[in-house]
């Protein structure tokens, strides 16, 4: 079997699927990760698919990964929003207005900031544990959490004024 044409088919399928995922709503980094996961799954399966079955298999696995990622992200945001609001707002019932404000404020955060919020408020990690995870000082974690709380408060107040 000549591997070069097979590799070419794999690469065209990968780029096609990546473009499709981005068009469907995935961000480019997630689309690349999903395509990489599909390649890993193909390698781990230790099979050589026929060229006519390769493309449908790629799409099926990639879309399955994308839906899993979407569901996980949706659940993660809901839990994060509820948990952070409960801790920050000291209110048990979430009203739709405040929940929407918090959700909008959380969308402005970077991946690092969301990671801090998640680890500290959702996973109940200590400042020491977070500093070990990110390999930064405990003082930096405390400072970043403090600034993050104030940023979220300002964003929520700004969203409240905009209404």
From TrEMBL:
Highest rank taxon of the organism: Bacteria
GO molecular function terms attached to this record: DNA binding; sigma factor activity
Domain RNA polymerase sigma-70 region per the UniProt entry, residue ranges: 16-75
Pfam family, one: Sigma70_r4_2
Assigned keywords, A-Z: DNA-binding, Sigma factor, Transcription, Transcription regulation
GO biological process: DNA-templated transcription initiation
Family matches, as SUPFAM superfamilies: Sigma2 domain of RNA polymerase sigma factors, Sigma3 and sigma4 domains of RNA polymerase sigma factors
RNA polymerase sigma factor 70 region 4 type domain mapped to chain residues: 101-152
Keyword set includes Repressor: no
Family, similarity comment: Belongs to the sigma-70 factor family. ECF subfamily.
Protein name per its UniProtKB record: RNA polymerase sigma factor
């Amino acid at each position: 079997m000549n591997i070069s044409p097979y590799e070419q088919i794999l690469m065209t399928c990968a780029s096609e699927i990546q473009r499709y995922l981005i068009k469907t709503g995935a961000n480019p980094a997630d689309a690349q990760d999903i395509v990489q996961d599909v390649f890993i799954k193909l390698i781990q399966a230790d099979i050589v698919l026929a060229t006519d079955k390769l493309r449908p298999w790629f799409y099926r696995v990639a879309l399955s990964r994308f839906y899993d990622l979407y569901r996980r992200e949706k659940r993660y945001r809901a839990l994060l929003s509820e948990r952070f609001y409960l801790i920050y707002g000291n209110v048990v019932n979430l009203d739709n207005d405040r929940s929407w404000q918090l959700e909008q404020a959380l969308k402005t955060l970077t991946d690092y900031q969301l990671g801090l919020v998640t680890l500290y408020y959702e996973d109940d990690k200590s400042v020491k544990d977070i500093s070990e995870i990110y390999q930064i000082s405990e003082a930096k974690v405390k400072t970043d959490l403090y600034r993050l709380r104030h940023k979220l408060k300002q964003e929520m107040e700004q969203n409240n004024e905009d209404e």
